[in-house]
Design brief:
The protein is mainly alpha-helical. It has one domain. It is 86% helix and 0% strand. The protein is built from five helices and no strands. Helix 3 packs across helix 4 and helix 4 packs antiparallel against helix 5. The longest helix is centred in the first third of the chain and has 27 residues.
């Protein structure tokens, strides 16, 4: 059980660091992120809400105050990573590696969370 906890915390910490950095970048560096969104075919008005949602998702996963909120954060991140992966593959820009890594970390974090906390 100890090794599962270590795997959980490594995957969750890396996932949360990625999402926190991404959320802050979305809020601080709007112009650059909006251009990337435009290049991928997404509207720029999604940048601020997604930045806020990523930060709130990290808070929901780490605080564990509500299992429902944590599950919603995992689901939201799953959709975000899946759509980012598909968008980058369609654009052919080679940027699909980061969403693929994030999706892998998310799945490991989610599955080990279920083993530990039920």
């Amino acid at each position: 059980m100890k090794s599962i906890r270590v795997i959980y915390w490594i995957a969750t910490a890396l996932l949360c660091l990625m999402m926190l950095a991404s959320g802050i970048m979305y809020l601080v560096n709007y112009a650059e992120v909006a251009k990337v969104f435009s290049d991928l075919g997404y509207p720029a008005y999604l940048v601020y809400p997604l930045g806020i949602a990523k930060i709130l998702g990290v808070a929901a996963i780490l605080t564990k105050k509500s299992k429902t909120l944590k599950d919603l954060a995992y689901a939201g991140f799953f959709y975000d990573f899946t759509l980012a992966l598909i968008a980058h593959i369609n654009a052919g820009d080679g940027g699909f590696i980061v969403p693929l890594i994030a999706l892998t970390l998310l799945i490991v974090s989610f599955l080990t969370d279920r083993k530990i906390y039920g």
